[in-house]
Specification:
- With about 270 residues, this protein is mainly alpha-helical.
- Helix content is about 40%, strand content about 5%.
- Strand 1 and strand 2 form a beta hairpin.
- It is flat.
């Protein structure tokens, strides 16, 4: 087995893949040199009759007379055309009848109607009739109208028909009395909230600050080493009290208007 060593070569990996041929650039679009002139002329012609019509009505030239097949042409509509009856003439009017209009009368186009299908549709879509109330007074089946017999009560003939019953009037009176009583009780009740004046607020704030100073002095006088459980409990209690006092002082300072809600009146 022999080994061939190649020391000199001129291969290049960039030339292995062939690139597609470049497309030639498109030629520039054609623009007429009279484009702006045409636009200005057409714009001026349109603006003359935009709102109030032409300033001067343009007259037709001598060569624009009406020629054959040059008039307006109207397309036939899809609706059925009016057919004039030319074979049959209208009958002679009688002396008492009014005189008909001059000119040929249009022939009435008879429409074919399928009465069977119309009757079937009417029967299917119609509402069923309610049976009339009747009664039989003999065994052979002589029927009579039940409403006119007097066997069933007719509420329209009663003296209380259409009138408000008495229990509803009594109920309305009781509701009105209860409403008045509630209004009086609410008016007599004292307000549950009481307003704290500015003087009381200043005194309360001063007392909270004094308590905070006392607790702070007591907290600073604690020993540095807390090696027993009672010392730890006392220190934690003082810290909680100081935090609560700081929170209360901050709320009172930030809120100038304070209302106190009495819970005893609510429970009562």
């Amino acid at each position: 087995m022999s080994i061939v060593n190649i020391y000199f070569h001129d291969e290049n990996i960039y030339n292995v893949e062939k690139k597609p041929p470049e497309k030639p650039p498109k030629p520039p679009l054609y623009h007429s040199r009279f484009e702006q002139q045409v636009r200005q002329e057409t714009k001026s012609c349109k603006d003359d009759h935009r709102t109030m019509g032409y300033s001067k009505i343009p007259l037709h030239g001598p060569g624009e007379f009406l020629k054959k097949n040059c008039g307006p042409r109207f397309r036939a509509t899809k609706s059925a055309p009016v057919r004039l009856c030319t074979s049959h003439k209208p009958p002679v009017p009688k002396p008492n009848e009014p005189r008909p209009m001059d000119g040929p009368a249009p022939c009435q186009v008879m429409k074919v109607v399928d009465f069977k299908k119309d009757n079937i549709k009417k029967v299917v879509t119609a509402n069923p009739k309610k049976p009339r109330a009747r009664y039989a007074d003999t065994r052979k089946g002589d029927f009579h109208d039940l409403e006119k017999s007097g066997l069933t009560p007719i509420y329209m003939c009663k003296p209380k028909f259409g009138k408000i019953p008495q229990y509803l009037t009594r109920r309305k009176k009781d509701l009105a009395v209860q409403k008045e009583r509630l209004v009086e009780e609410t008016a007599q009740q004292k307000p549950r909230c009481s307003y704290v004046s500015q003087e009381e607020r200043v005194e309360l704030l001063r007392g909270l600050k004094q308590n905070w100073e006392k607790l702070q002095q007591e907290y600073q006088s604690l020993p540095l080493l807390t090696d027993t459980v009672p010392k730890m409990i006392r220190k934690a209690k003082l810290e909680n009290n100081l935090k609560q006092l700081e929170k209360d002082i901050l709320t009172i300072e930030n809120n100038p208007y304070i209302y106190i809600y009495d819970e005893d009146q609510k429970d009562a």
